[in-house]
Each structure stands twice: as C-alpha cells, then as structure tokens.
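Pilot study result, target chain (385 residues):
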Amino acid sequence: MVTTVVSILMPTYNDYDSIYFSIKSIISQDYHDWELIIINDGSLDNTDEIVHSFRDSRIKYIKLNQNRGQLNALLEGKKYITGQYVTMLHSDDEFLSKKSLSSSMSMIKKNNLDGIYSDLQIINEKGDFCGIFKTVDHVSRKTLANVFLLRGANLLSDIFFVKRECFEKFVVSNYLSWNMPYWFHIDKEIYIANLKKVSPWYGYHLHNQNYILSDIGKFEVFNGMLRTTLTLSQFFNEYKLSRLPRISELLIRKYNLSFFSSSPYNGSLFDLIKSVYYGIYGEENPLNNQYLDVLFQFYLNYPNNCVLTIPQDLINDCKIWYLGSDSRKFYMDIGSNNIDPYYQFLLSNARNGFTIVKIKDSDKASKVVDSLKFLNFRSTVIIEK
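Predicted structure:
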C-alpha cells in the first residue's frame, strides 16, 4: 500500500496557459509520495483539457460549478487530503527545483517543526528570475505585534508548507476560514506556529494585478486585514512613534524594530479602522459602500452602553452565514441588495453602535459570534434567560 506523505493543494481559475508547467514541476520532483489536489474554481477556459492530459493516479481533480474564491476552493480541497504534510502551489506558479518537496520535508523532520517558509523567487512573463519577495527572518510574538503595527499586513507569504496537525489548527482556522495570516492562532491566548525560514523552494510568477486594484479585490484585502488588526488589538498596544505609518513601516520591515507593549490597545478603535482603510483605499471616500458606511458609524459611536436584541426568527431563518472566505460573495450580495434579513438587521442597527448582543437560543450563539466577527463588529454575545 502506497502512503501519501505530502498533499499539494492547487486552486485554479482560468489558468489554462500556466497550469501545465505548474503540474509538470510537481511530477518532476525527486520525491514521489505525493498527491496533487486540483480545485477548479469555476474556470471558463480549457483547464479541464490540460489537467486530463496528465494520466497520473496521484492527481485528484475537483471541479466547482461557480467561482467562489481561492479560500473557499482550498476549503473544498481540504476534504480530499490524506497526506501527513500539506502545502499549496498556485496554478500559475511552480516549484523551483526537483528537491523542493524532499528538502522541505527533511527540514521539518530534522528540526521537529510545524512547518517551513521562505522568500519567494519572482519570475517574470519571460520565465526569468527578476527578484525576491522578502519575508521576515523569524516568526515570534514580536512578528505578530509588527503585523498589528502594520495594520494586518502579513509579514510572511501565504504559501504554507506544514504538518497536517498545523494545517488543521492554524491554516484552516485562521487563513482559509477567516482570511488572516496562517501562522498564528488565538484561543483566549496567542499560539504561534513553530516555523523556520529556509532557502526558497517556490517560484512566484508575476501576473496581472488588476483584481487587487478592483473594488472587490480591495474589499477582500481590507476585510481580512481589518479582522487581523482588531483581533491583535486585544493583545498589543503601540507607542506614539508607530502612529507615523511610513516611518514605522520602514523600521519594522528593514530593521525589524517595533514599538509595542503586550497590553490591549487603548487608542480609538475608530482611528484604528481608519488607518486600515487608508492603507488599502488611500484617500478615497470611505462612504462609498453600505457596509463601509455602517462600519465607520459603528466605531464612531463605540464604545457605548447600547444593547441589541436579535429576533430569534431572523437567526433561525438565516440562509447564509459568512466566513472570512466569503467576503467576495458578501460584497456582491450587498451590491445587489441581496443580503439576508438577519445581516440587514445587524447593518441597519449598527449605525448607533452596540457593545452587547442578546439572543435566546444558545445553540445559535456560535453562528452569531461568527457573523459579528465577519462584519468586524466588536460586541459581546449574551444568552437571554
């Protein structure tokens, strides 16, 4: 019986021109006990044709009916994982050498790590190496504090290579579900994955950045960075110098300096929200979207003594519960006025702010907590008796 040791997740969307080379870089590895799980996220091109041209039983191909975004594609692929290690390869990227898998696993085993990470080698449209995407040299609590100071900016890449246990505890719970950096996890206190930086094994292809520059792309990034910032603000405060963003970013990224204390943030959450917003949108008008409008109003009136009681029938009848992986769908739903009445109720009452949310059914408490986490509304849920 052949044992699958490493599972490689490959989300793909309309990458007909590049996925052949990505798959080829896997097949050419000197390590052979792998499985490749390709998740076609509703592609409209001839990706099927390329994938089916590889007659290799180690390749699993899942085709989704509609485009739901990379994180949801990865969550779907998670169901098919059998390996002891899990990594990701985008369908327009490639492994740098034939030893990318073997050397990465060897490093994890040798050092008893949760996983490894590295700088990324950048490859241009001609296939030439043209630079390096730099990551931090160490991962620690200080690194996490710097993520807070940089308002949710990930100081590692999202390319994970981890043990299965780390994948479940960190990657799934933080990155895939909530669009936050994969290498930390919070359960009342902070847990940071035991990662080590190694030599680059991953080739990152430059591609069209129009999506990131689009309104929906900006919203996805903003939603995740804001959630990360608000989450970490419960554990880190900042010194005044760090409120000069350009100076603090230079000192953090280039010299690994930071200006924080291990105590909850005591500044204005409204100002915190604004700083995350301006980092993504610049000086654009923040009131150009119903949700963004409500978000600013919520924190303009925060904190307060307001209590919101949610009708139980709205909770019971809710048809969709958004996670961080669903920010694209939420953006489209709110743009087409297709928001479930439960979320519409939250948004319509959020302008005045509320710090306590009351519900009657304890079985639905986790759903309500997740909905507030998705909307980035800091509120405490209480069960009415």
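One observation from the pilot: The two ends are 56 Å apart (CA to CA). A full batch analysis is planned for the follow-on phase.
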